[in-house]
Amino acid sequence: MRLTRLLLNGILGVCLVAPLSAQGVLTVPRTIVAGSAFSVQTGGSGPGTLYVVGPNQVVKMDIQLGSALEIAAGTLYNAGHYLVFVSGSSENASLDVTPANKPADVSFLARPSRLPVGLRGGITGAVYLFDLYKNLYTAPTPVAFQLSTPAGTVQSRSITTRNGAAWIAMDSSPKVGAAQFVARVGDISATRVIGQVPGDPCGLQMTAKAAGQKVEVETAPVRDCSGNAVPDGTIVTFTEVYNGVQATVDVPLKRGVARVEMPAYPGAMITVASGVVLGNQIRWGR
Q1: Could you give phi then psi for residue 21, rounded to 5 degrees?
Q2: pTM greater than 0.85 (yes/no)
Q3: Which of 58, 94, 242, 247 lies deepest, with the highest CB count within 10 Å?
């Protein structure tokens, strides 16, 4: 008996090739699990050829008709619907291959890889389960999601898969740093690292003092609404308006503060902002 595998238009099936005089009843299991061994009962007599045709596989076997054929474990591994027939005969059958009985691999997608702190539902995770043969494992299965943050908080939720997939949204921590995002199914797990960075400046404040013929304005240490230091290089904009003329200076944070000297016009209005966040105003010389 000879076993040959062929690829035919992405379909795997079982076909028995035999003379017309060797027709008979063909019997196969209705359902098998991916990778399982099974038997095929043929009718008639004489030599023949068996084909199994289904998703992305074709199996060919030269056989003796009228006997039970043992198909070895691992021969059919792609889940899907298979056809079984004898060439030159009207007899045919079909069988379905289902995914293996338990998941063997977790595909875990976590987004984004980097985000600001304090975002409700800002971190999302999607899980897809696969069996040993990379078939999508579609049986409802609980997936345990856990997000451990630098603040020491742990968010945990269990979601049952639907059609092989599960999805969840988690809140980013109020503290900057790397969060560990884990998806676990039984003893199988996958981990992703989410970088959490400071949010927008919050409560922006500045002070002003005389510096010779100019006025020196300086911010307090700039932090986000959770108290995390905003990184150096963040742009702070100082604006001075005097007699309808506006002057603007952009200054990057250095060691957490921004500082600049501006003309000391009596009655000038000086404001500070960073992005869309506004700070306090100072009217100089009055």
Answers
A1: -75, -10
A2: no
A3: 58
